[in-house]
Amino acid sequence: MEYEVKRRIYWGDCDPAGIVYTPQFLDMSFQAMEHFWSDHVQVRWLSLQSELGVTAPLVHVDMNFSSPARSGDEISIWFSIEKLGRSSIHYRARGALGDQPLFVIRFISSMVDEKVFKAVPIPEKIRTRLEKLVVPADC
Q: Does domain 3-131 have CATH number 3.10.129.10?
C-alpha cells in the first residue's frame, strides 16, 4: 500500500536558487514515514525504543531526482514499504508535483537492540503489521 502525505514547500526549504535544497526531500520523506508508522502500523516511531527496546537507524539511502520543486508548491509524497528482511525494512518515497515526478528515495533501516546496537529480528508484533503493507518494488 502506498500512503500519500501532502506537503507544502516553504521558503526555508529552498536554497538560494529558489528550489528545494536536496537534503530536505530526505527529511520530508522521513516525516512521511513517521505519519505512515502512526497511521498504519499504529506505532509511533519513538515508541520502538520506549516500548520494544529497539531502534531502526538508516543503513542505506539511494536518491534520484527528476524535477525541482519551489516555494509555494504543494507536493505529494507517496510512501511505501518494498521489502522486509529479517531485521531490515526497505522503504520507498516518491515525490510528485501533480503528475510531474520529482524524486524517488529508497532507504533501508535495520532493527537493532538499543542497548548493544546489534541487529535483531523485527519484533513479531511489528512484522505482522508491516507484512500487510508491503508493496513490491516492481509495482
A: yes
